[in-house]
Every structure is written in structure tokens, then in C-alpha cells.
């Protein structure tokens, strides 16, 4: 007899989706899941492994709440299938630090009051860690630009920026204003003069 899933009354029962084994390395631990091949990495983390630190916001790649690191690079886990990451090293917010030993970014977010509701925070921190790994951001304008895929509905952006800048600064990754203003991009432009009366 084939297995069926629960369906609303009056509808025909549907067969369970076929599953396949998937081996994932998450935060240094190996996990084997039996999941439908179209399961996203986000759903694999949250629904099958109870790693609920990674948040589901839009589920459409637009908010960044689901950001995790795959081989050190940030991705939107809602847009990526779990089966494509069998040989990857996946890092979630749970793997960045522990309660007794927070990562520098986690500590900086607390010190700078860089969250209000906290829903976007795991994605913000993973994204900031990815940005640091990439080594591209050296100025506030670059951090703003490269973190622009992470939306915070509470509007904690200025404190998030301060937290990220502090960690970049502590790691000696920030350029002095004089050094970068010579090659400034349009994002680094001086403030617009107010209109004359
Ligand atoms: S939940 Fe993935 S980008 Fe919004
Ligand atoms: S702290 Fe609430 S959405 Fe960012």
C-alpha cells in the first residue's frame, strides 16, 4: 500500500514526494537527510535539522534573512537546493560562535545595539562575515553597498554599520579616509550642498 499525505477534506490524497539521501556538513558536523530533491537549503536547515537561527523572510531571495556561508561565501539559502551542497562546508549563525564565546561580529552587534526585533540579525551577521571573508569592503560606503542585500525592517542600519566597521577596524581592514577618497566612487561622493536661498 502506498503512503499518502494528509490533505484537506474533499480532496484526493496525494502520494508522498520521493526522497533521496543527502549528506551535508553543517558547522563542522555531518548530517544525512532523506529529503525531496527540491528541498531548499533553508528548509533543510530549519525544518529537518532544527537549526532555526537562519530565518525565512521573503523566501524569494530579496531580504537576506536566510543568508548562510557556503565554503566561506554568503548565499541566500532560500534560493539554493540542499542537494547541490553535498561537498560544501556550510556555516550558519549557530556555527559562528557559542553563547560563552561569541564571534567578534556577534559581540559587536550587541555592543552597538545593532538589532531591534532581531529577525534579520542572523542573516546580517552571516552576510557581514562573508563580506569580511571577501576582503572587498574597506569603507563605510562599500560596507553599505555590499550589505545592501540584507534588509532590516526595523531600520537598525546605522548601528549595524557601526558594528561591522568596528570588526573591520579591529582586523585592520579599514582604509583611512584620505587613502580611499582619492579613488572614490559615486557612492563615496561628498554630501550634496543645500540649495541657495
Ligand atoms: S528568505 Fe531568502 S532572501 Fe528572503
Ligand atoms: S532588527 Fe528587526 S528586522 Fe532587523
Automatic annotation (TrEMBL):
**Which superkingdom heads the taxonomic lineage of this protein's source?**
Bacteria
* Residue ranges annotated for the 2Fe-2S ferredoxin-type domain, each copy included: 20-96
Q: Return the Pfam families for the record.
A: Fer2, Fer2_2
Keyword Transferase applies: no
Instruction: List the InterPro entries hit by this protein, alphabetically.
Output: 2Fe-2S-bd (IPR002888), 2Fe-2S-bd_dom_sf (IPR036884), 2Fe-2S_ferredoxin-like_sf (IPR036010), 2Fe-2S_ferredoxin-type (IPR001041), 2Fe2S_fd_BS (IPR006058), Aldehyde_Oxdr_Iron-Sulfur (IPR052914), Beta-grasp_dom_sf (IPR012675)
List keywords of the entry alphabetically. Answer: Iron, Metal-binding, Oxidoreductase
Q: Does the keyword Metal-binding apply?
A: yes
Q: What is this protein called?
A: (2Fe-2S)-binding protein
Amino acid at each position: 500500500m502506498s503512503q499518502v499525505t494528509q490533505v484537506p477534506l474533499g480532496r484526493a490524497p496525494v502520494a508522498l514526494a520521493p526522497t533521496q539521501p543527502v549528506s551535508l556538513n553543517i558547522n563542522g558536523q555531518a548530517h544525512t537527510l532523506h529529503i525531496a530533491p527540491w528541498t531548499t537549503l533553508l528548509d533543510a536547515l530549519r525544518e529537518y535539522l532544527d537549526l532555526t537561527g537562519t530565518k525565512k523572510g521573503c523566501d524569494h531571495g530579496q531580504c537576506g534573512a536566510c543568508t548562510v556561508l557556503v565554503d566561506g561565501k554568503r548565499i541566500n539559502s532560500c534560493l539554493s537546493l540542499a542537494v547541490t551542497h553535498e561537498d560544501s562546508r556550510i556555516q550558519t549563525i549557530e556555527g559562528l560562535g557559542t553563547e560563552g564565546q561569541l564571534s567578534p561580529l556577534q559581540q559587536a552587534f550587541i555592543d552597538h545595539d545593532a538589532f531591534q526585533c532581531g529577525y534579520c540579525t542572523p542573516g546580517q551577521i552571516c552576510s557581514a562575515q562573508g563580506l569580511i571573508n571577501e576582503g572587498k569592503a574597506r569603507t563605510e560606503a562599500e560596507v553599505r553597498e555590499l550589505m545592501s542585500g540584507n534588509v532590516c525592517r526595523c531600520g537598525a542600519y546605522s548601528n549595524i554599520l557601526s558594528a561591522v566597521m568596528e570588526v573591520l577596524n579591529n582586523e585592520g581592514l579599514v582604509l583611512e579616509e584620505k587613502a580611499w577618497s582619492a579613488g572614490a566612487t559615486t557612492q563615496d561622493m561628498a554630501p550634496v550642498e543645500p540649495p541657495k536661498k
